[in-house]
Amino acid sequence: MDPSPLLRFAARGEVKLALRASSRLRNHGLIGTTVFVRHIPLFSRDYCSNATSNGLLGSASKRRARGPVMAAKKASEGVKKEVGKYKHTIDLPKTSFGMRANSNIREPELQKLWDDNDVFSRVIDSNNGETFILHDGPPYANGSLHMGHALNKILKDIINRFKLLLNYKIYYVPGWDCHGLPIELKVLQSMDQDARRELTPIKLRKKASKFAKDTVKLQMKSFKRLGVWADWRNSYLTLDPEYEASQIEVFGQMIMRGHIYRGRKPVHWSPSSRTALAEAELEYPEGHISRSIYVVFKLISTSPSSDDLLKEFLPDLSLAIWTTTPWTIPANAAVALNAELQYAVTEVSSSPQETSAIPGGREIKMGNVLKDIQGKKFVIVASELVPTLESKWGVKLAIKKKFPGSALENCRYIHPVYMKECPVVIGGDYITTESGTGLVHTAPGHGQEDYATGLKYGLPIFSPVDDSGKFTKEAGPFSGLDVLGDGNTAVVKYLDEKSSILIEEPYKHKYPYDWRTKKPTIFRATEQWFASVEGFRPAVMDAINQVKWIPSQAENRISSMTSSRSDWCISRQRTWGVPIPVFYHVKTKEPLITEETINHVKGIISKKGADAWWYMSVDELLPEAYSAKSSEYQKGTDTMDVWFDSGSSWASVLGNKDGLHFPADLYLEGTDQHRGWFQSSLLTSIATKGVAPYSRVITHGFVLDEKGLKMSKSLGNVVDPDMVIEGKNSKDSPGYGADVLRLWVSSVDYTSDVLIGSQVLRQISDMYRKLRGTLRYLLSNLHDWKSEYNVPYNELPMIDKFALFQLENTINSIKDGYESYQFYKIFQIIQRFTIVDLSNFYFDVAKDRLYVGGSESYIRRSCQTVLASHLLSIVRVIAPILPHLAEDAWQHLPFQYFLNDGSVAEFVFESRWPNENKVWLMMPVEDIDLWGKILGLRTEVNKVLENARTGKLIGSSLEAKIYLHISDAATSSKLGELHASSNDADALHRIFITSQVEILPSIDSKEVESIPYTGQYVHGESTIWIGLSRADGLKCERCWNYSHKVGSFTDHPTLCSRCFEVINFQSNSAMASIG
Ligand SMILES: [Zn+2]
């Protein structure tokens, strides 16, 4: 058989209006201009099949079978006859708004439209509500954007754009973090050795600055492509002179308030980067293994309090300690005990077991102490650990005496390397019996807790290790060796030769690595500048309490991180940063830093930038009052921790730029910023202003691949935002555009880690198409709409009132979603609304009224009234998430939208959030219940229709007549009333899209038995019986409904009564206009 003429013509792109007109109801798609026709299958089929995949399928979607079935049937009947006569009386949808987003071209066009018309500032200027400040956390100007950046900036943009619609004035100044080691390293790596030798700090800074600024440009371009609205022309860079000056001011204020001090203190030190590191610059990779050793220190004297206890065991008594960093033994200054724990003197003797039977056997290496147990040997360990240590060391430990740790304070032992006397001291709660021996080797130059204990006892802070991680001369036999390599080995060997090692075993634990070089760090005491968090911690904790944290668990996170953190080491031994503006006396090394010197340096930097610190002389950098003495001073060479840079942004940006206010309304960054930017900003702000720099903080998780794995180049699972937008090739990796990426951002619960991959993107892109299809349906059916056609609410059919009730509820829920920052809820609401409420129901039913109800009829205009409300609402409420789609639709509006002041909203963001329509929500509860029942009933009717179609009784649903019998009288009378209502739209056969519906008083008669297809709908107490037969009468040529009336009008023998009236009315008004 000849294929459908429509399909054949469409394939050749030669579809004529006549053909399209005849196919209007078969396709149930949108038919209009020629461009349209090619996409009919896309709309109708995709719309439905996707609904299935989303589990939101209403049975209406099954009716898609009607299209092809009817097309084939029609082809066999001969098309020509049916096509001609009434085509001009049918209102086909019309719009130039394309079904395809064509986002690679269209999105940049729309962005240009916004730029050319300055829409962002235009909207801000015309808004007259409160100011809303979302302060941008500066991404690092190093490399291209990853998905985490995209997630972050899109979330911010959704919030800002929502606020814009709500009449807020927003000032959003984007920023970049430009200093620091990674950029310095990139510059160094890009140079050969000769060039590197020639490199002065100023040359390096110039190159680093250029690198950062170039990267900023690249990143800015990508952010703009995401559709992010920001004050791009006035963005802030941490390398701007004004920024640097503000940072110096924050530093100065902290100095003046006594919150900054210089001290020798163990800090995380990266030998590979030759600099101190902050907590935020460390990572703890899996699988680090240290060489751990159990060592004995020989006790040589007891204290008065332990004399009686221990004397009998001397001189064969030792303290047993355990360490995972043997290289710190030379720096040992004490052994610390917990006063509360029980300790015991134990006698060591060979275990009856063979050595090979030691648990964990091969990994453990026995030291010389245990290889040769001769005579009596006593060691002190925590009593509780005796069984564990017996099994670990493979010996018997007979307990001779027990006592509390406090009893041992001030006993003395011999240092195993330097043979000097050292004390036993009481440490803190950090000494436990979870591992080791309960006695802690204490080296105040190499550990935080050791340092604190050392301060208590006045122990020396000894740290014989240099910047590159090598032992200094002070380390004696180990001088010049690498503490993380041969130095560590040498210490172990030395100790064993001196018979100090019990056993050695590999130990797997979390160990801090430098996050940039991926190499292990050490703890090392150096002269550094510190911010004394201790000094203002209570105020910080109090401020955390005042801030609103989203999600709420974040408050615990930042509280525990802040309450447990030590003082903040803010100096770095690098060149690419803001200098610590301090001078040192050449001879005494005493630092010189006063309010006067700071202000002077600040003044210079605000004009010339921080480079001035390097190229200007001490004389120039010091205030005049010091000119006589300037030769006695030299400049400090330390720069500030980059977290101090970004942590001062509230001062540099919120405090300095017009329109902004302090504190910001919102900070929004990834969860890693609890120990990074959120914290550094909080510390500097509390230390100088006494309040938090933000009133609200939102955190988001990380972006992982579809399987929940971290993205990495080596795994090949990196999803690149530019690639998602632009695409690589149309098949495997199509360009989805920024809006699909933005829709993805809205779909995820960002408070935990989120997943993305090609599968996810395909689903999101389907959803995008559905939304676009929804807007296209609305635009195309409003092509002849004017606001004066508006039908008053009270005069609307009930189906329309119900549609508006659903719309208003939906808008309110969407607003709640935005206001609670739960965008995934909005995504779900929109998905349900467009598929279930609109596509499967209202839009489906409305086609009859819109296409054949008569252009200017009440029935069509009332429907358009509802559609116009939907269009104007949907396009605005999705605009924060999908600004390009919303603007694209707005630019295709077939009518103008007037603002309250009478001006036209030319751009969607000028239109503001839809006004509340409380009256739409006032539908009586019983009516809402009734419509709930009707929708349920409709689903069942659709199933019966589907059965009849499968059984070949009918093709189109219009070929069917539905019988209903309703068990309960109340429902029966309500449905009957609705069915008989004076407006055509509420009649049940219109709602079911069948030609007839008859409500039967009973189902006992013989006649009912002959009804071929039946079904049932049960709702609470009431049961509705459904029957289906072929429709009565003949098919109307114009609307395809079946009716007894077809054939009864002499002038129009092929029309039903509805169509007859429509035609009569139209020809009369045509005559009138001619006359
Ligand atoms: Zn008709």
* Unreliable parts: 1-83, 354-358
* Ligands bound, unique: zinc ion
Characterize the main sheet: 11 strands, mixed
- The name of the CATH topology of the domain at 287-352 and 361-511 is Isoleucyl-tRNA Synthetase, domain 2
- The helix/strand class is alpha/beta
Instruction: Give the CA-CA distance, first to last residue.
Output: 49 Å
CATH C-level class of the domain at 287-352 and 361-511: Alpha Beta
Using the 3D structure, state the CATH architecture of the domain at 287-352 and 361-511. Alpha-Beta Complex
Gyration radius, to the nearest Å? 40 Å
Q: Please, what is the average pLDDT?
A: 87
Q: What is the count of helical runs?
A: 40
Secondary-structure blueprint of this entry?
Blueprint: H1 5-12, H2 17-22, H3 24-27, H4 34-37, H5 40-53, H6 66-77, H7 79-83, H8 103-116, H9 119-126, E1 131-132, E2 134-135, H10 147-165, E3 169-170, E4 175-176, H11 181-189, H12 193-198, H13 201-225, E5 236-237, H14 241-256, E6 260-270, E7 275-277, E8 282-283, E9 289-301, H15 307-310, E10 317-323, E11 334-337, E12 342-350, E13 365-366, H16 368-371, E14 378-382, H17 386-393, E15 395-404, E16 412-414, E17 421-426, E18 439-442, H18 448-457, H19 486-497, E19 501-508, E20 513-514, E21 522-531, H20 533-546, E22 548-550, H21 553-564, E23 568-569, E24 571-572, E25 583-585, E26 591-592, H22 595-608, H23 611-615, H24 618-621, E27 633-635, E28 639-640, H25 642-647, H26 649-654, E29 666-670, H27 677-689, E30 696-700, E31 703-704, H28 721-726, H29 738-747, E32 754-755, H30 758-780, H31 798-819, H32 823-852, H33 858-877, H34 883-891, H35 918-921, H36 925-950, E33 960-966, H37 969-979, H38 988-992, E34 996-999, H39 1006-1009, E35 1013-1019, E36 1022-1030, E37 1034-1035, E38 1042-1043, H40 1057-1074
Parallel strand pairs: 1-3, 2-29, 4-5, 10-14, 11-17, 22-30, 29-30, 31-32, 33-34
Antiparallel strand pairs: 6-7, 6-21, 8-20, 9-10, 9-16, 9-19, 11-18, 12-14, 12-15, 13-19, 16-17, 21-23, 24-28, 25-26, 25-27, 33-36, 35-36, 37-38
The protein binds zinc ion.
Organism: Zostera marina
EC number: 6.1.1.5
Enzyme class: ligase
